């Protein structure tokens, strides 16, 4: 089963329709969650801890590289001389440390308390000491991206993503991020207990593969669309972000400011476009709003939710972390 999941014995209770609940003990499969420390510094000098993130092991080098890019520490693969997994103090080795040596001329990140990170599985910007520290600036102007996407293509994304979520199928506890073309072709998918980690793993993979900027692509996420996910999309040059659940106000504000198309509540045959609607190709005129009374625009009743929708299991796409490697030694691989 590897380090991406683990088996635990549980007490199963089913109250059913009778007076006495049915009780049984059985094993259950849980998503793994472990800390990953990211150390960064110039080559030839000791690297300093920059971040600790709670993640599901697997694709850890991509996670670290994607994190550094989406946080503005690096701008391209050439900014990194080496990136390697390091053995920890545990026995057996857990490889819960990634050591990144920056290329010559790349300034190391600030490591004062105002810029250090501790990221949980639910928060990707925890630990930043100021509002200014939250914002990073992308070198890719997504507002200039001419990409267009049809609503029919958008409606296919959640089902395609869900069908490829082998980890979620086994545990019910993993988020997913999928990189698609505007025609709906799945290019890469990663899973993690943290939605921001899943996105960083996709972005880090694209960085190593020399695919940045990701112009003409769509980032599909299995939960809600938060500010940090919108920011990560723009840092990678992705013009469209779609989510099965709701966006936040800051996510919408950022999308409007930077020209990102933001789609929420993408379920079944319906969706809400919160920003950048000009990229969605419509065959008919958009009707103006008929009522100003407050009401929910979420498709269907039952609230925003934050879990992947049931569907058939798909192929395994994530790999567990293994031995120490240099970024220069990692051969390109398929998504």
Description:
The protein has 2 domains: 102 residues, Ubiquitin-like (UB roll); 138 residues, Cytidine Deaminase, domain 2 (3-Layer(aba) Sandwich), CATH 3.40.140.10. The strands form 3 sheets. It has a 6-stranded mixed sheet with strand order 9-8-10-11-12-13, sandwiched between helices. The chain has a 5-stranded mixed sheet with strand order 5-6-3-4-7, with helices on one face. The chain has a two-stranded antiparallel ribbon with strand order 1-2. The longest helix has 14 residues. The chain is flat, with a radius of gyration of 21 Å. α7 links the parallel β11 and β12. The protein contains 7 helices and 13 strands. With 335 residues, it is of the alpha/beta class. α1 crosses α5, α5 runs parallel beside α6 and α6 packs parallel to α7. The C terminus is likely disordered.
CATH class of the largest domain: Alpha Beta
Broad shape: flat
| Total tally of structural domains | 2
Amino- and carboxy-terminal Cα gap: 20 Å
The SS-based structural class is alpha/beta
In spatial order, strands of the major sheet run: 9-8-10-11-12-13
Low-confidence stretches: 300-305, 307-326, 328-334
Quaternary state, please?
A: single chain
In DSSP terms (H or I, runs of 4 or more residues), the helix count works out at 7
CATH architecture call of the largest domain: 3-Layer(aba) Sandwich
Q: Rg, please?
A: 21 Å
Strand content: 25-35%
- Largest beta-sheet details: 6 strands, mixed
Percent in helix: 10-25%
């Amino acid at each position: 089963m590897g380090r991406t999941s683990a088996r635990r014995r549980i007490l199963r209770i089913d109250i059913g329709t009778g007076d006495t609940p049915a009780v049984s003990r059985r094993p259950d499969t849980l998503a793994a969650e472990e800390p990953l420390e990211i150390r960064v510094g110039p080559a030839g000098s000791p690297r300093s801890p920059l971040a600790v993130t709670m993640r599901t092991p697997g694709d850890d080098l991509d996670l670290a590289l994607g994190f550094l890019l989406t946080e503005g520490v690096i701008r391209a693969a050439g900014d990194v001389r080496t990136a390697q997994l390091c053995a920890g103090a545990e026995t057996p080795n857990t490889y819960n440390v990634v050591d990144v040596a920056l290329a010559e001329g790349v300034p190391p990140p600030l490591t004062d308390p105002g810029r250090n990170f501790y990221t949980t599985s639910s928060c990707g910007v925890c630990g930043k000491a100021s509002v200014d520290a939250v914002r990073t600036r992308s070198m890719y102007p997504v507002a200039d991206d001419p990409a267009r996407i049809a609503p029919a293509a958008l409606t296919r994304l959640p089902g395609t993503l869900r069908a490829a979520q082998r980890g979620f199928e086994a545990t019910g506890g993993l988020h997913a991020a999928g990189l698609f073309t505007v025609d709906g072709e799945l290019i890469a998918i990663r899973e993690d207990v943290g939605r921001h980690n899943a996105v960083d793993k996709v972005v880090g993979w694209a960085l190593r593969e020399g695919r940045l900027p990701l112009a003409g692509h769509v980032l599909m996420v299995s939960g809600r669309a938060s500010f940090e996910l919108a920011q990560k999309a723009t840092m990678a040059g992705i013009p469209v972000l779609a989510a099965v659940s709701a966006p936040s106000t800051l996510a919408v504000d950022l999308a409007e400011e930077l020209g990102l198309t933001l789609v929420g509540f993408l379920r079944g045959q319906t969706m809400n476009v919160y920003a950048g609607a000009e990229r969605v190709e419509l065959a008919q005129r958009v009707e103006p709003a008929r009522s100003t009374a407050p009401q929910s625009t979420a498709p269907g009743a039952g609230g925003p939710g934050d879990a992947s929708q049931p569907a058939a299991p798909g192929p395994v796409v994530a790999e567990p972390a293994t031995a120490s490697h240099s970024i220069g030694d990692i051969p390109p691989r398929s998504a």
